[in-house]
Amino acid sequence: MLPRALRIVNSGANIGFLRLFTRYVSVSSRAVMDIAGKDGELRVFIVAGEVSGDTIGSRLMASLKKLSPTPVRFSGVGGSMMSKEGMESLFPMEDIAVMGIWELLPHLNKIRAKLKETIEAALLFQPHVVVTVDSKGFSFRLLKQLRARYSWQRLDSPVHFHYVAPSFWAWKGGEARLQGLANFVDHVFCIFPNEETVCKSNGLAATFVGHPILEDVLALNLGKQISPFECKIEGKNEDFRSKFAIPPGATVISLLPGSRLQEVSRMLSIFANTMEQLKDSFLELINVIHIAPNQDVENYIRSFVNKWPVPVILIPGGQPHTKYDAFSASSVALCTSGTVAVELQLARLPCVVAYRAHILTEWFIWYKAKIQYISLPNILMDSAIIPEALFQACTPTNLVSLLMELMHNKELQEKQRVAAEKVISLLFPSERILNNLAAHVSGTSFSNTTPSMIAASTILCHVKS
Q: Using CA atoms, how far apart are residues 312 and 306, in angstroms rounded to an integer?
């Protein structure tokens, strides 16, 4: 059962864990670990292009080091989190952290140069495994050109993994594009339910490992038995209010403007104007701005808030306990679309999702998207559980209206909380995998059966084609 498979791991579980996945993942020919064993190390070239990818990459690196019987050496591109796990990035990750259509154009030459630099570094590193994390525009070009270079030079190609399946379900014609990926991607790690089945039906090997946000759940609930339908993170409301001297009658609103500088610079002014209009509705209004672990973003926000319309508390990235304490102290949250919407579901904090982009990017999304929602909880539930203010509707006036309605409507708040249980349960690693763990590893159960552990185990047991 799921709860049974999520208890504390015994110190000797790693061997059993790998034996299980050796059975679970198809194995023929020469395994990666056999080749790495002869070389005396497992060389992993890993690339992440944004903050969320940096977090996923760092956890995967930690899991590989924990499970691998052979020393692991890393090279590639990442941020501060991946650096802590022992990788020196080829260049700042922010150099390729660009999203959008029009927004990309001014950076094309730089990104082409960075792509070439990354390919040359990968070839020089001679990896056994290449892992790209999200950022599909850069990642797929890298994997495709790497595969072509190895073929042209008649060299054995490393195994290519891509972590976070492309959101084919969101775009017209998206599923049809999966078939071409099998030419240069050997295995995809899916973070949403049903993606694995669709990928496999299009000839692309895939594993549903669960959503990366579950790593926070297990880390912050260490030692506790967890049920997917009861999965949440409870922060310390009173501790947070005491630490930051928040008056008893003050209303706290958490703001999460994004992780990329381009979206933060666009959204922060909208959030500020929203708070300017909202402040007279409360005796005392205090904002908590959560900063992504991106130095450019942090510098921008710290400079911007000098003229913020209400008292503001800044929470730097990389402090999950403080983040969830702030959520606990907040009445509601206003966030830019992204993973944070799921984090707020974990905290059971009612929220409003906002999103703006360049007008051409917005037009492209409107024309090509085949789903009507942008936040993951709404997509999974196929219902407007979370209020969304998108594109031209993302104005301070509209955001004020949505926030006020949510704060004063208990029925809407309860609707979000009930939906949160279902949403989080859908993001857990597949029951099939967890049941296999419990069934095949005698006397052992796993509280650390996290997405990164499952992905690392799959990598270690995968064949070298």
A: 10
The structure tokens 């500020």 sit at: 272
- The DSSP code for 198 is H
CA of residue 115 relative to chain centroid, distance: 22
**Amino acid identity at 445:** S
pLDDT at 287 over 60: yes
pLDDT in tens, 69-84: 889 999 999 999 999 9
Percent of the chain with pLDDT over 70: 82
- What 8-state DSSP symbol labels residue 40? T
Domains detected in the chain: 4-216+429-461 (3.40.50.2000), 232-425 (3.40.50.2000)
Long-range contacts of range 199-203, CB-CB < 8 Å, 24 or more positions apart?
A: 199/165, 202/175, 202/178, 203/178, 203/179
Answer whether residue 107 shows pLDDT above 60. Answer: yes
Tokens of 31: 């395994």
Contacts 24+ apart (CB under 8 A), 219-224: 219/320, 220/320, 220/321, 220/324, 222/447, 223/8, 223/447
Q: Quote the CA–CA distance of 4 and 435 in Å, as a whole number.
A: 9
pLDDT tens-digit map of 407-447: 999 999 999 998 888 888 888 765 555 555 444 333 334 44
Give the number of other Cβ atoms within 10 Å of residue 203's Cβ.
12
pLDDT at 168: 81
Residue 362, token pair as written in the block: 């917005």
Cβ atoms of 97 and 50 closer than 8 Å: yes
Burial status of residue 425 (CB atoms within 10 A of its CB: 0-12, 13-18, 19 or more): middle
Is residue 228 helix, strand or coil? helix
Nearest 5°: CA angle at 199, between 194 and 201?
Answer: 100
Burial label, 214 (beta-carbon count in 10 A; 0-12, 13-18, 19+): buried
Query: Rounded to whole angstroms, how far apart are CA atoms 171 and 443?
Result: 45
Q: Which helix (H) or strand (E) holds 269?
A: helix 261-278
Spell out the residues 6+ positions from residue 360 whose beta carbon is closer than 8 angstroms to its own. Answer: 101, 102
Dihedral, CA atoms, 304, 305, 308, 312, nearest 10 degrees? Answer: 160
- Walk across the sheet containing 72-77 and list its strands: 72-77, 42-48, 129-133, 159-163, 187-190, 206-208
What's the start-to-end Cα distance of the chain, in Å? 34
Kind plus residue range of the DSSP H or E element containing 433: helix 431-440
Q: Report the SS3 class of residue 208.
A: strand
